[in-house]
Amino acid sequence: MAHGVDKETRDKASLASLKTFLSGQRRREELELLKLWKALFYCMWMTDTPLVQQRLASDLAGLVQIVPAANVLPFLEAFWTTMAAREWNAVDRLRYVRRRRHMPGHTPRTGVMPVDRLLEPLRRLMQESLTKAIRKQADQLLKDERLAR
Hints:
The protein is an all-alpha fold. Helices cover 77% and strands 0% of the residues.
């Protein structure tokens, strides 16, 4: 539970709790991860300033680095299932709802919320996923090289 009323304190406590949860060694169920990514998708959707969106995208992408090896693939599969197969189809509907509410962040010419905010976590998570895969492969190559000596 977050101790403090200011947003920055709540955000840090929430992220710390999420990291603690995800870093646990217990095998995560698919449904559990799908629910998590759906909630995170809507967190991203509800951010309304570019700097907050970028920080949240970085924080979400950074989760890949703390997920134990046994859970990385299910974690990423749930992300892609959520983004590509489940929630992405609702983006146009969500953009329309936000336009109707005249919320901040709309593009002045069309009044439609830019989709780019949802592409940012895709790009960053892809980068973190590849970084983790490359590190794992490099570690394995070093291990194999040491064993060969």
